[in-house]
Specification:
44% of the residues lie in helices and 18% in strands. It has 249 residues and is α+β, with helices and mostly antiparallel strands. It is elongated, with a radius of gyration of 23 Å.
Length: 249
Amino acid sequence: MVPTDGENQEDDPELTLRPAVAEDLDAVLQVYTAAATGPGRPADERPEPPVRDWVSRLLEHPELWVATAEGAVVGFVHLDGDWLDQLFVHPDHQGRGVGRALLELAMALRPRGFGLRVHEANTRARAFYTRSGLVELEHTDGSSYSDGSPDVQMAWLGEDPLAYLRRRIDEVDAEVAVLLARRVALTAAVQERKAVGGLAGRDLRREQEIVERMARRVPELGADRIARVMHTVIEESLAAWEDRPERPS
């Protein structure tokens, strides 16, 4: 996400929003190339061919929309499910209502709400989204993205904010369930290879190291709370291993 609208310039005349077509490839690429190097964004180190391929794949998606002024593409927005994946405005047209129009379009297309990612250092974009009614839900170190830059997960909560947030919680709970299943399986694999297994073989020093690593990733919880969570996860994982049906007598 890039800086979009300020408050002091006039809106672009005759701004039009429409679905993107194949003929927009060069113009969308030009908007992205010009806007992606703005302040608060890490540089895109990719050469033009892979960037062009990426834009061409966006054009294949039914929810890539462009904003045009006097016939020229000046911005675009890409929606992917309940996620606003991309919103870029050409620097020459920022602060002229283009970003606001694209964001309002996204809100109309996603009345139940949507999320987006913005780089933490991109304070102008964060301020724009906040003014537009979005909220900051989560700060991450960006390690799950290729650019590795700290970011903020923001969201427009839609017509029923509580319902939107509960859907997001359900998504996270599904991810937690998968991680718990992996944790249980790995715990079992370790126990099969330890000289002393089960609760008697707990390595408290290693568990403390795990808590310290996790606390650095989730400072909102703090080490004490994470320690209690992980104590339960480890204890129950070990108990599941000890209670396995095929356990030798």
